[in-house]
Amino acid sequence: MSTRVQRIEETLRRAIADVLLFGGLRDPRLQGVQVGVTGVRVTPDLLQARIFVDIMDPNQSKAILAALRSATPVFRAEVAKKVHLRRVPSLTFEADSAIERGLRIESLLAEIRDEDADRESGS
User: What do you get for the CA distance between the two ends of the chain, in Å?
Assistant: First the structure.
């Protein structure tokens, strides 16, 4: 991946996080929710960007993701004001499951350590 694409990804991530934090969205489903922008992946032609978000409340993740997707035109307009690109890529919001997977792996490793400790103390 080129350095230019990486810079654009980071710039887009910051701009989208700013829109989420400081407003610009009037959708009541997005008011007061905690959403973190964990990453952005842009295609090499800079036409499409996948936005990975971490939704803090897992019970509302589907509703919040749907609200983010419906607010995509507003996000593009707000990002266009903040980012100086010839053309703002189309945005696609996706839930980031990396944190959840990491927590699951940590719990599995803890179980293995506990089993090993039990086995060693029992021998």
Answer: 52
R_g of the chain, CA atoms, integer Å: 19
Provide the CB-side half-sphere exposure for 67 (13 A, CA).
18
* Token pair for 69: 């997707």
pTM (2 d.p.): 0.77
d(CA 6, CA 11): 9
Sort residue 23 into left (φ over 0), alpha (ψ -120 to 50) or beta.
left
> CA–CA separation, 13 vs 99, rounded Å?
17
pLDDT in tens, 85-122: 889 999 999 988 777 778 888 888 988 888 888 888 87
> Domain locations in the chain?
3-97
Assign domain 3-97 to a CATH class.
Answer: alpha beta
